Structure formats: structure tokens, C-alpha cells
């Protein structure tokens, strides 16, 4: 599959604010911190036009409160990923209810992900639910703020994304793996920088 990488769009910030408002209302029973992360959160950086959102919860006990609060709407819950990443709950927000494309609302451990669900043009957002006291929360926030603070690192990341945007990928996960070496190397610097601020 070919992933569309678009030039930075100021509307991404507005879209995040709309989604944040909706998610705040849906998760009102849980204490949350909702953050815009990923490339769409960094002004001037190209990205897949899918908003990355991180919902921070107080502890791992709260993770399993979220799936049922988002059920019956435009979200697909990837329960399948919980085994590999027990510290996170992952959702895709679609442009319509999953049933409109005959998608399940929840993809369980042994389920195949429907091929059409890999189509990023059907997606509005990726939602990552993570405890705020975890290293995973810190690395996402630190990397975002580091890219904003260091234009040379942002330019290097931009160049990598442009190169990868020309290639064909099996799915979004394969594309993410191709960025992994760069991200992991810069994340370590970002975390040190963030802690020293």
C-alpha cells in the first residue's frame, strides 16, 4: 500500500481540538490528560493526515475502562495489540461507524485485521491510551517537544519521511518500523533533554 504523506496542515491542530473535546466528553468518568502527539502535532512537519492522540490515565487499572466508553461510535478497538503492549490500549477513529464498512468494533487476539481497515484514507485518528506515569507517555511527549525545539532534527525527520513516503508498504506498521531507528535514537536524546528542562 502507498501511504499519503502530506505537507503540514494548520487544520490538523483544529481537528485535534475537536477530537479532544469529544474524547473528554466520552471519558468524563475517568481522569484523563489528552495530548496531541506524532507528526501532525509538530508545525511544519509532513505527516499522514491521521491525528495521533494520547489519552493519559492515572494508572494501568484505568486502561480497561476506556474501550467500553468509546464503544458504539466511530472507533475500532485493537484488543489484539494488548498482549504485545500491555501498557497501552489502541483505537482507530474512522470517518464513519465501523459497521458502514462491515468492520468489527473490536479486533480480538486471534482475529485477522480486515484488509480494508489498513486504508488510512478511512481514518481520522489513532488513539493511544497510556498511563501518565509510564516511560511510554514520557517518550511521546519528550519527542514531540524536542522536534519543536530543534529545527535541525525536525528537518532530518522530514527528509526521512519524504523518502519513505515514496515507497510501497504492507501496512502502517511496516512504515512505522522503517522510521524506528531514527526515532529510537532521537527519543533517547529527547528524554534526557526533557528531564533537564
From TrEMBL:
It comes from Elizabethkingia anophelis R26. InterPro entries: GrpB/CoaE (IPR007344), NT_sf (IPR043519). SUPFAM superfamilies: Nucleotidyltransferase. This is GrpB family protein. Transmembrane segments: none annotated.
Amino acid at each position: 500500500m502507498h501511504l499519503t504523506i502530506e505537507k503540514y496542515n494548520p487544520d490538523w491542530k483544529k481537528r485535534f481540538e475537536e477530537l479532544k473535546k469529544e474524547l473528554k466528553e466520552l471519558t468524563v468518568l475517568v481522569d484523563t490528560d489528552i495530548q496531541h502527539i506524532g507528526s501532525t502535532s509538530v508545525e511544519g512537519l509532513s505527516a499522514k493526515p491521521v491525528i495521533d492522540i494520547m489519552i493519559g490515565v492515572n494508572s494501568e487499572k484505568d486502561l480497561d475502562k476506556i474501550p467500553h466508553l468509546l464503544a458504539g461510535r466511530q472507533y475500532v478497538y485493537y484488543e489484539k495489540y494488548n498482549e504485545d503492549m500491555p501498557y497501552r490500549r489502541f483505537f482507530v477513529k474512522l470517518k464513519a461507524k465501523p459497521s458502514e464498512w462491515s468492520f468489527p468494533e473490536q479486533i480480538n487476539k486471534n482475529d485477522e485485521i480486515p484488509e480494508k481497515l489498513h486504508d488510512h484514507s478511512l481514518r481520522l485518528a489513532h488513539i493511544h491510551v497510556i498511563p501518565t506515569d509510564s516511560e511510554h507517555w514520557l517518550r511521546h511527549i519528550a519527542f514531540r517537544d524536542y522536534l519543536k525545539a530543534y529545527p535541525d532534527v525536525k528537518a532530518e525527520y522530514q527528509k526521512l519521511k519524504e523518502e519513505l513516503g515514496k515507497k510501497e508498504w504492507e501496512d502502517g506498521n511496516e512504515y512505522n518500523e522503517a522510521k524506528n531507528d531514527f526515532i529510537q535514537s532521537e527519543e533517547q536524546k529527547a528524554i534526557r533533554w526533557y528531564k533537564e528542562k
